Amino acid sequence: MTEPLVVVTDIDLPSDGGAADLLRAAGCRVEVAACTTADEVAAAAAGATALIVQWANVDAAALDALPEVRFISRLGIGYDMIDVDAATARGVAVANTPDYCVEEVATHTVAMALSLLRALPGLEAGMRAGRWAPTADGSGAVRPSETTVAIVGFGRIGSSAALALRAAGFRVLVSDPFVSAERIAAAGLEAAPLDEALAQADLVSLHTPLTAETRHLLDGERLATMKPGVRIVNTCRGGLIDEQALIAALAGGQVGGAALDVYEDEPLPADSGLRHAPNLMLTPHAAWFSPAALAELPRRAAENVVAFLANHPVPSIVNPAYVASAGARQPV
């Protein structure tokens, strides 16, 4: 039997964590490319049975150009760079690596939230400027028991962050149309429709996938309906926020502070207005990182490929309907 070809379309990690060795030990050939566009993927992955994708775009045209591809393993949690509907229609399974960095991202989220809610950036800047002004530089600090946090999305990361903030004494509202109010209440939290949660929140943290429906979930119109001085944290996907609207809301004071780890364009352009916006904390899509997560991510993505090609279950397949597609490209 011909060894199946696995093409890593792109990877910007300092190490593959032994992923290539794992794939070769399972009888696969491995090629590593440096793709960004769908056309580059189509050219680099000719003859491939499986793809491992970090950021490269995989659209319907690329899938049509790669008729032998049966499986796509996303190197990460989100998969908005892959046209999942097109993959499903062509019988191609898509899986992500959903739990390799839950602790890291949830902790990063909470750290950002607490930094904003306790006015740490202003206090630290004041000290460096030679001031000793706890009440002036820390004027935005809050009491947890009098503060409401809205968590938008109650998946692994959102739920972990919600529980941590609840344990710190904050009132936590959760908005997720795919999670029952009973399940949220069982966690000791309050369920609320999105706009109701946003209207009550002193801080909003986003944890929902980026889709056509959620793109610019926080746009200028919605930001204007929120509490004056609201804080915003986004460690999920940059496209959830209209960045230009956020810059304007920060400048005008409608948003009192924000902390972002993700951006509409990454790396963040040098001329981005976000770099000069007031009361804004920026980190370079680093919430996922720890040495343990760095080692685990590529290995998990490779393990998904090995399991699929061996006809073993892959629990993280995001489009189980692929099997019902006419001419599904299933393992043999």
UniProtKB/TrEMBL annotation:
Belongs to the D-isomer specific 2-hydroxyacid dehydrogenase family. InterPro entries: CtBP, D-iso_2-hydroxyacid_DH_PdxB, D-isomer_2_OHA_DH_cat_dom, D-isomer_DH_CS, D-isomer_DH_NAD-bd, NAD(P)-bd_dom_sf. GO terms for molecular function: NAD binding; oxidoreductase activity, acting on the CH-OH group of donors, NAD or NADP as acceptor; transcription corepressor activity. The keyword Oxidoreductase applies. The keyword NAD applies. Pfam families: 2-Hacid_dh, 2-Hacid_dh_C. CDD domains: CtBP_dh. This is Phosphoglycerate dehydrogenase-like enzyme. PROSITE patterns: D_2_HYDROXYACID_DH_3. Residues 19-319 form the D-isomer specific 2-hydroxyacid dehydrogenase catalytic domain. Keywords: NAD, Oxidoreductase.
